[in-house]
Amino acid sequence: MAYLDTSVLTAYYCPEQLSDAVGRVLRDISTPTISSLVEVELVPQNAKPTCIVATSAFW
Questions:
Q1: 56 within domain boundaries
Q2: For residue range 3-12, what is the model confidence (pLDDT) as tens digits?
Q3: Residue 42, in any domain of the structure
Q4: How confident is the model at residue 24, as a pLDDT?
Q5: What is the number of structural domains in the chain?
Q6: Is the terminal CB of the chain with fewer CB neighbours within 10 Å at N or C?
């Protein structure tokens, strides 16, 4: 099990320098775990025009 915090998921959903590296790591994680706060913390990040909107269906 791997815990994913908001900064990791932000790098995945919003193009930035570490996005490719995060994507490679996420593909190798069999059981990701997130806090219930991650969805709330991602909302301001999703307001950026370059971000892919994460929906509740993802979680």
A1: no
A2: 988 888 888 8
A3: yes
A4: 92
A5: 1
A6: N
In the block, which residue shows the tokens 């570490």? Answer: 18
- What is the C-alpha separation between 56 and 59, in angstroms, rounded? 5
CA separation for the pair 33, 55 (Å, rounded): 16
Identify whether 17 is part of a domain: yes
Note down the domain range covering 41.
Answer: 2-46
Q: What is the pLDDT of residue 34?
A: 87
Residue 38 lies in a domain: yes
Place of tokens 């490719």: 20
* Separation of alpha carbons 13 and 58, rounded Å: 12
SS3 category, 32: strand
CA–CA separation, 19 and 37 (whole Å):
21
- Encode pLDDT of 10-58 as tens digits: 888 888 888 899 999 989 999 888 888 887 787 766 656 666 655 444 4
